[in-house]
Amino acid sequence: MNDYISLRLDIEPASETASDIMAALLADIGFESFVPDAEGLTAYIRKDLYDAGAIDSVVASFPMPDVKFSYTADVVEGRDWNHEWEKNYFQPIVVDDKCVIHSSFHKDYPHCQYDITVDPKMAFGTGHHATTSQIIAQILRMDLAGKTVIDMGTGTGILAILAAMRGASPVTAIEIDPAAEENARYNVAANGHPEINVLLGDASRLPEAPRADLFIANINRNIITGDLPAYVRAMRPGATMLLSGFYEKDIPVIMATANPLGLTETGHTVKGDNWTCLCLTLNP
């Protein structure tokens, strides 16, 4: 079994946004899993891939200048990591009593109409984050039979998988991070939906996908506002858009870009630390 490095980062001031951004940056240099908490997060990387200088560079270039970090690294001897995830971190989650998300190593979990198995390389996209669970709840309320779906920034592929389970076809999932894209490919196959087209890349890959009846993007405010014109070009008139990865207070910023593109807000939900899921419609 592989030995790992456990990197503990305390964040001041602590926030989910800072933890999410830091985890994404650490994923780029080889970290595999992340456990956020109220003070920061703990990240894990194989010992042979650990580079202290790379950590220093990530911290020095962090895009929120007012955020400060203190961090320590410890060796964790090889162990059954599936067991560790099951015991300590990734527990099954149920959304609206209709959808259960669990890992392949879970043996005792509730049974629901929609059963999704994910084996995450990182803590993103397990359904536990308020952004993901809110989009799941919206998908569960929609009639997606025969509808075309694009899931931008798919992560582990959960949202694309659920859309396919709800009858959507075709479904395209796009992910910019190579490790996450590989994980999404594994998960869509493991859930019996290899027909989901998983693409590696950013919004530049959108012209390769059929235009969407439902467009999903669970990323962050700045990427969404920058890419909204490309998103709209990938949608059919009258299509629905679900956006998340930002706070309720960010909605006016999103709408300042969305309204001139022909998008109208039809509602939004709020969960956790004011994370929101914004529902929009593209004018016919």
Runs in which pLDDT lies below 50 for 5 or more consecutive residues are none
Largest sheet: 7 strands, mixed
Question: How big is the Rg?
Answer: 19 Å
The proportion of strand residues reads 25-35%
CATH architecture of the largest domain: 3-Layer(aba) Sandwich
How many helices? The count is 8
Structural shape: globular
CATH topology term of the largest domain: Rossmann fold
| Assembly of the depicted chains | single chain
Biggest β-sheet: strands ordered side by side in the sheet? 10-9-8-11-12-14-13
CATH superfamily of the largest domain: Vaccinia Virus protein VP39
CATH class of the largest domain: Alpha Beta
Q: Could you report the average pLDDT, rounded to the nearest whole number?
A: 88
Strand/helix succession: EHEEHEHEEEHEHEHEEHEHEE
Reconstruct the topology from this structure:
Elements: E1 4-12, H1 16-27, E2 33-36, E3 40-46, H2 52-60, E4 68-76, H3 81-89, E5 93-95, E6 99-102, E7 114-117, H4 130-141, E8 149-152, H5 158-165, E9 171-175, H6 178-190, E10 197-200, E11 212-218, H7 221-233, E12 235-247, H8 251-258, E13 263-271, E14 275-282
Parallel strand pairs: 6-7, 8-9, 8-11, 9-10, 11-12
Antiparallel strand pairs: 1-3, 1-4, 2-3, 5-6, 12-14, 13-14
Summarize this structure as a short list of keywords or feature phrases.
284 residues; alpha/beta; Alpha-Beta Plaits; Rossmann fold; 2 domains
What does this structure look like?
This protein is of the alpha/beta class and 284 residues long. The protein has 2 domains: 4-79, Alpha-Beta Plaits, CATH 3.30.70; 90-282, Rossmann fold (3-Layer(aba) Sandwich). It has 8 helices and 14 strands. The protein has helices at residues 16-27, 52-60, 81-89, 130-141, 158-165, 178-190, 221-233, 251-258, and strands at 4-12, 33-36, 40-46, 68-76, 93-95, 99-102, 114-117, 149-152, 171-175, 197-200, 212-218, 235-247, 263-271, 275-282. It has a 7-stranded mixed β-sheet, with helices on both faces. Strands 2-3-1-4 form a 4-stranded antiparallel β-sheet, covered by helices on one side. It has a 3-stranded mixed β-sheet with strand order 5-6-7. α7 (221-233) packs parallel to α8 (251-258). The protein is globular. It starts with a strand and ends with a strand.
